[in-house]
Amino acid sequence: MASESDRQMAALRDTQTRLLQLLEGMAYCLDWKPDPSEWSARQIIYHLLDTPAGGLASVVKGMISGNVTEYDLWADMDNMTPERQTHDLEGVLREINGFFSTMEEALGAADGPDLSMVRAVVHNKTRGTDDERTVIEILHRGLCGHWAGHLDQLQGLRESLGV
Fold it and tell me: How many domains does the chain fold into?
């Protein structure tokens, strides 16, 4: 029987595979938007990689190690910086793969703690709420909810571009 860590690792790898597949052939259009009010692929990617601040991977790693017991969450930030704006697709892919490596490392080290018992307080600054969440809840909401929704958004961009 697969452990919770194994199930989360499988979901993580599925998410990484889908993201990388969605970015195939998009090197020329990372900054294209169907409408000025919408996000480009680059904005979506950096929003995912760096929400919450520092990234979901560093939060999960910190929770598992016991170093993170609370963190702030700001919604709807694209997390763009002048440096990120200059990255070509290869540079973006390096950051994506670094994120997933950190997350795999964190989950790989999770043999000891029961991930459903490791908790942190999430200070949702946008909504003005504080909630206690387990690593499992954070991963599920993050990968199966938040990330999945934005991967669908990337799929829509691909379709609009005819890629």
Answer: 1
127-45-133 Cα angle (round to 5): 40
Residue 45 pairs in a beta bridge with: none
Contact between 53 and 74 (Cβ < 8 Å): yes
Which residues constitute the domain of residue 117? 4-161
Could you read off the pLDDT of 131-157 as tens digits, one per residue? 999 999 999 898 888 999 999 999 999
Q: What is the pLDDT of residues 91-143, one digit of tens each?
A: 999 999 999 999 998 888 776 568 889 999 999 999 999 999 999 999 989 88
Structure tokens at 1: 């029987």
CATH code for position 42: 1.20.120.450
pTM: predicted TM-score of the whole model, two decimal places: 0.91
